[in-house]
Amino acid sequence: MPRSRIALIAWVAAAGAVGAVLRLLMVELSDEVFMKFPWMTLAINLLGSGALGLLVGVSHAWSRLPKWTIPVLGTGLLGSFTTFSTVVLAVVLAQDRELFTLTSADEVIPPGLFEMVAYLLISVIFCTAAAAAGMTIGRAIFGCTGMQCKHGGDGP
């Protein structure tokens, strides 16, 4: 494996560690574990989805963006900052410990089922919208409105 590839992997890993720690700090500072609805995880995922969309939009429009940008900032930093596994974990933690036992009984709706379903739907719909908005803004910075736009300059 070439040295440049090993260095890229190391940078992605380092950026991933930073993104995961940022997410952990934001959740810890919010006392989300005591909330029934995981507001901070939703905010983190919205912010990260928008930022990732912006990064992808800029990378599509600006041909001189360094090649390491998407793997390091996208996959590493933002990929670890926003994860669907965090959404699922937040949903599970928001439920009572006996959720799975309750669902096996007849005619029992587990407590917080509405919140769980709403949170999953909100996460999928609004994080997708945030990513799309970020991509649109990232491309618009360079005046790109069509699919074949490549800005060759030094920046916006």
Automatic annotation (TrEMBL):
GO molecular function, one term: fluoride channel activity
Catalytic activity entry: fluoride(in) = fluoride(out)
Annotated residues for binding of Na(+): 79, 82
Membrane topology qualifier: Multi-pass membrane protein
Spans traversing the lipid bilayer: 39-58, 70-94, 116-142
Origin superkingdom: Bacteria
Compartments in which it is found: Cell membrane
InterPro entries per UniProt: FluC (IPR003691)
Principal localisation: membrane
HAMAP family: FluC (MF_00454)
Descriptive protein name: Fluoride-specific ion channel FluC
Gene label: fluC
